[in-house]
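#struct-help
A.M.: can someone run this one for me? Single chain, 281 residues.
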Amino acid sequence: MFHKPWATALTIGVMAVAITLPLGLWAALGNIERFTGSVQQARQISLFLKPAVALDRARALADELRGRADVAALELRTPEQGMQELREHSGLGEAISAVEGNPLPSVLIVSPKGDEAMLAASLKNLPEVDVVQHDAGWRERLDSWLRFGVRLAWVLAILLGLGALLVVGNTVRLDIQSRREEIAVLQQLGATDGFIRRPFLYLGLSYGLVAGAIALALLTAADQALRDPLADLARSYGSSFTLRGFDLRQAAAIVFGSGLLGWIGAGLVTGHYLRQTRPIS
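D.P.: on it. Structure tokens below:
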């Protein structure tokens, strides 16, 4: 590898880019899912009670709904809590303080267990409920986009993984061609296929390990470049969201998987060559 620095750099660079693209897409999808909220949060149903419903009745209704089999969890937000959140997040604290009384209703936030559409339809019939807010369409569209993104990441991973195999295989093939006479002598001396194949396997493994490390470095650099601007943008929306990269276990799996790609590519090419040149006994 050190005797052919440019060829080595080209092979490792192509492998690193091929590994970085699907990994970057997976990381982006994971962060998008965290930023938009979990699927469970997106499934929540908000029940805005009628203004005339007293707080004691709202608490009693919350207890009744918690006992339903299709309700996983329920949270009651009182008008005072709603007014406090409005003061803190709307930027209209002084104007809100000037308003006499509290016009906000009590709100029940229901986490469904099972089909949330059927639950939302049944809750609309409650006499205390004024408005039912259920963003099922938005959640379904989000889920569809995330599923599409995951499928796209897998397709890219397979295609680019095959590309990495071909790159390593072609590089090892050229190295084998330059050592044909040496390999022929070893075969005549009785060297086994495993003995001849082993250095090329180590070569492919080295390509893969270095390419995996470079791919992690590229993703880390991208994470550092985007972390602060995205955090500032999230803070402007009142969120503490920050990018999350790969942990130590995931990083080790990436490097190991990349090394395995190089090993397999070298093994396939070397095995094919040895089958073609095996001496006749």
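A.M.: thanks! The radius of gyration is 30 Å.
D.P.: also worth noting: Strands lie at 45-49, 71-77, 107-112, 129-134.
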